[in-house]
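Appendix B. Chain record.
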Amino acid sequence: MTFTAGSFVPINNAGKPAKQLGRHWPHNLSVADEGKAFRISFPKDACGADRPDDTLVTVQPTNGGVRCHIEPTAKEQRDRLKTALERHADRFALREAPLANEWRDS
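C-alpha cells predicted for this chain:
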C-alpha cells in the first residue's frame, strides 16, 4: 500500500522558499540539492517512530509555485509531514503566508 501525497503551492518567486526549505534541515537530516529540486530524507526512526523505511520528500520550485511530493511508508508519517511542510513554507514565504496548499493523496 502506498501513502504518497503531492501538492502545488502557488507563490511568487518560488525559488526562495523552496531553497529555504531545502537548507533548513541539513543539520539533522540528509538533504540532496539536485539543482532543480531538493530531496530530503526523514529517517524511519525519527522522533522515536518505528516505520518500515525512511520517508523521502521532494521540494521543487516551478514557474508560479512550489511542488512538494511525499513518499512515506506509513500514513501517519505522510499526514505529519504535510503539516510540517505547510508550517515551514508559510514561515519562509513571509508576506505571502498563509499559502494555499492543495494536497492530493494517493
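Further analysis of this model is presented in Appendix C.
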